[in-house]
């Protein structure tokens, strides 16, 4: 008796058919916007007081609001309030479609919660849109050194904003002929924090700034103008290398307000003009993005 290795003959090998890979479901499409998150935060106390998530978990699992593992983590909590709090924490990490499915699940037996939440979402969306336009207006006031590319970007962005405004007015049933570009710039102490545009501009320019800026050259001016405190200055100077000092300074700057940002840009003027102009240009672009 002779044992034959069938694998030696290609035509006798058992071919294992590759099963098509199952595609994981996306995380419910687009991530939650700031408006969605703000609406959830505004309604959270009422939701935690009134919602028994056990009644909606099955539907939320079916509609991909949560996974089986998430469901088990929620059910492991001991009280109704803790379960609801855990559910809402998870919902904040999900996408807009998950949010919409949550609203649909609420509307069956908890319409007194779903209706205010939807209303709050609309209010927050308009409030954030208005604030973004205010920030853009404030940033554009200082628009001086604009090259041709930036002018084209600005023009296209403004045209898109106009179209969106017209569409929004139609959606709200408002006259579209009264859209005007003549409006006073709103200024409020509540808007003194760095906007997303400021932060994005800093992140985009950070590598260039860290490579070139010796912060010790501008610290006296920044202290004098109230941009940083003596304690912050000491924290910056405690770092051994120029790069680390600059990185620490920029970390602090992101926690300060728009006035502090303007002071920083002004302090760059004398010796670091080559950093100042690209940073201001990037700020204008990010404001219209």
Automatic annotation (TrEMBL):
CDD domains: CARD. Gene3D superfamilies: Death Domain, Fas (1.10.533.10). It comes from the Eukaryota. Residues 32-106, 194-270 form the CARD domain. GO terms for molecular function: death domain binding; protease binding. PROSITE patterns: CARD. GO terms for biological process: regulation of apoptotic process. SUPFAM superfamilies: DEATH domain. InterPro entries: CARD, CRADD, DEATH-like_dom_sf. This is CARD domain-containing protein. It comes from Owenia fusiformis. The lineage of its organism: Eukaryota, Metazoa, Spiralia, Lophotrochozoa, Annelida.
């Amino acid at each position: 008796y002779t044992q034959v290795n069938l694998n030696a003959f290609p035509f006798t090998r058992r071919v294992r058919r590759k099963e098509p890979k199952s595609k994981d479901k996306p995380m419910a499409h687009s991530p939650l916007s700031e408006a969605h998150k703000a609406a959830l935060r505004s309604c959270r106390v009422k939701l935690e007081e009134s919602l028994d998530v056990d009644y909606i978990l099955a539907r939320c699992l079916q509609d991909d609001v949560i996974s089986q593992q998430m469901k088990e983590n929620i059910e492991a909590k001991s009280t109704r309030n803790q379960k609801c709090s855990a559910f809402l924490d998870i919902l904040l990490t999900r996408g807009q479609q998950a949010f919409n499915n949550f609203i649909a699940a609420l509307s069956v037996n908890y319409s007194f919660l779903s209706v205010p939440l939807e209303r709050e979402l609309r209010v927050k969306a308009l409030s954030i849109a208005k604030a973004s336009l205010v920030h853009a207006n404030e940033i554009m006031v200082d628009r001086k050194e604009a090259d041709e590319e930036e002018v084209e970007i600005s023009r296209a962005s403004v045209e898109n904003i106009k179209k969106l405004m017209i569409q929004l007015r139609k959606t709200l049933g408002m006259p579209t002929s009264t859209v005007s570009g003549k409006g006073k710039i709103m200024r409020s102490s509540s808007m003194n924090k760095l906007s997303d545009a400021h932060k994005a501009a800093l992140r985009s320019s950070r590598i260039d700034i860290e490579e070139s800026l010796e912060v010790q050259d501008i610290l006296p001016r920044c202290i004098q103008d109230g941009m940083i405190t003596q304690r912050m200055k000491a924290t910056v100077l405690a770092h051994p290398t120029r790069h680390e000092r600059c990185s620490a300074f920029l970390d602090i700057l992101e926690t300060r307000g728009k006035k502090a940002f303007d002071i920083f840009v002004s302090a760059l003027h004398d010796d670091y003009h080559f950093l100042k102009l690209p940073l201001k240009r990037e700020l204008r672009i990010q404001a219209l993005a």
